[in-house]
Specification:
The chain is 18% helix and 33% strand. It is built from 4 helices and 12 strands, in the order βαββββαββββαββαβ. A hairpin with a 4-residue loop joins strand 10 and strand 11. The radius of gyration is 18 Å and the shape is globular.
Amino acid sequence: IITNIKEEIHKTFQKFDHLVIKPIGSEGIEVDNKYEMPFYSRKIKKNELKKITSEDIQLCPTFVQNYIEKDYELRVTVVGDKVFCCKILSQLLPEGKGKEDWREGYKHGLTQEWIAAPEEIQKFCFSFLQKVNSSFGCFDFIKSLENNFYFLSIFILALFFSLSYSFDTNGLIAGTVQSGTLKFPDGPSSFYSVHT
């Protein structure tokens, strides 16, 4: 959920021991004037919510999900009818250095590799883009330890080059973008997110 009501978080996630928390529209939040939580996703114990006041959350709408232990993550970029899939081995990193949020793992030896996107993921991505009338999107998924894929978010107008800067495939993606006609959804929103 995305909320600025603390009681809503408690009510929605009563049965989960660990949550993922991320502020929306802020560089981070501060807890007890000494703990800073940057704009990265963070795994927290549910009882740690007690440290965050209702006023803190009212001032900073917060994205919260139940935490799902993951095997690895996928960044799937769709450009027209082309699919580029990067497997992100964030779980090889320590907590707070990319394990919960691969974006902070670059400084800590984040491992990535290009793979063929699983067929079920490709179908999902194409179906989603058709529904929002777009031909481009960067999708984030996790694969759980139970072998299930979970859709986290899609960035319709994302800067997808940042993920795979160390790979030579950027030229292929850029060439595909330049050579094709892309369509984007109407309206100002470039971010869609669904919690599972």
